[in-house]
Specification:
The protein has 156 residues and is mainly α. The protein is built from seven helices and five strands, in the order ααβααββααββα.
Length: 156
């Protein structure tokens, strides 16, 4: 049987299509298309699910196929695979964001800031308000670095 994680994600759509399909049987080609399988994978699944060969064509009853796919959808493997895919997707997304952030170069401030009174004109700090003018994200990061350094000097 093909590795389930490769085709499990297509089970809900396959169920929707098969429920509307008027044919009494499903052939290998339809299963390939619905679950995004290769020919040999579809044949193995049909054999494992109780399909049969009619001439050179592999078939399975539509109701039998629906029952198998419903049991897969309602099974523990399906839900654990979906949650695993979500976790991996979140991890990959986080790693991608981290990689992009590491590519960002923060330029050192143009002039040495001695304290909050010496902030550049692009940074305005009032009692309860901070306003920073910037041109791009790298410039914003440089402005924030300037502000942090000046705050550190004022607090020390």
């Amino acid at each position: 049987m093909p590795r389930q994680s490769e085709w499990l994600q297509h089970v809900p759509v396959a169920l929707e299509v098969l429920e509307r399909l008027p044919c009494p049987v499903v052939d290998r080609g339809v299963l390939e298309e619905l679950l995004h399988l290769k020919r040999r994978q579809a044949i193995r699944l049909l054999a494992a699910w109780g399909g049969f060969q009619s001439g050179k064509t592999y078939l399975i009853g539509r109701e039998e196929c629906l029952a198998v796919l419903r049991s897969i959808r309602d099974g523990v493997d399906y839900h654990s695979d979906l949650s695993r895919r979500r976790r991996i997707g979140c991890l990959v997304s986080s790693l991608r964001e981290d990689w992009i952030a590491r590519q960002t170069v923060i330029s050192p401030p143009r002039h040495q800031v001695r304290g909050l009174d010496d902030l550049p004109s692009s940074i305005h700090l009032d009692d309860n308000q901070l306003c920073i003018r910037f041109q791009n994200r790298e410039d914003l990061l440089t402005q924030l670095l300037t502000l942090v350094r000046s705050l550190a000097r004022d607090l020390s």
